[in-house]
Amino acid sequence: MRVLGVDPGLTRCGVGVVEGVAGRPLTMLGVGVVRTPADAELGHRLVAIERGIEEWLDEHRPEFVAVERVFSQHNVRTVMGTAQASAVAMLCASRRGIPVALHTPSEVKAAVTGSGRADKAQVGAMVTRLLRLDAPPKPADAADALALAICHIWRAPAVNRLQQAHADAARRASRTPAVPVRKVPR
């Protein structure tokens, strides 16, 4: 499975591609950051992020895109920018028919480090170890993007089984028991 992880942000949007399957060693295929100038107009920044994401999609052809789920922070302005960058990544993937998964920061930290409260240094250290890298990817947004991809690879099989079980249960529930039809005498 090949996953593009996206750590959304207007100034620095982390991107990283990881390939592998749960239970086996993973391989990093690429990591980087799509940058936009903080003083640029919002629309131009979003277009720059779109172009950057599109280049990563063209180059790496992922089967899935994993994006960090935007969570409420105290700074509404920061949340809005993060949400807008997140939407651009989801749009780029969806336009190509690539499934998008959203993972919360604590979900990603727990998957990669074993603790949902891990700090950036711990996440970077585990990403380095799991992908057998010489050093943690810089900046932290890049390491976070790889952590998102790793999280998705490890969680996808379980999530897919749960979704299938829910779908099967819904199908069974929608079937009404067959009621015998009696012919009425004339």
Structural write-up:
- With 186 residues, the protein is an alpha/beta fold.
- Helix content is 51%, strand content 17%.
- The protein is built from five helices and five strands.
- The chain has helices at 42-60, 76-95, 105-113, 120-130, 140-174; strands at 2-7, 12-19, 27-35, 64-68, 100-103.
- Strands 3-2-1-4-5 form a five-stranded mixed beta sheet.
Structural class: alpha/beta
Main beta-sheet annotation: 5 strands, mixed
Q: Tally the helices: what do you get?
A: 5
By DSSP, the count of extended strands is 5
What are the main properties of this structure?
5 helices, 17% strand, globular
What's the SSE blueprint?
Layout: E1 2-7, E2 12-19, E3 27-35, H1 42-60, E4 64-68, H2 76-95, E5 100-103, H3 105-113, H4 120-130, H5 140-174
Parallel strand pairs: 1-4, 4-5
Antiparallel strand pairs: 1-2, 2-3
Helix pairs in contact: 1-2, 3-5, 4-5
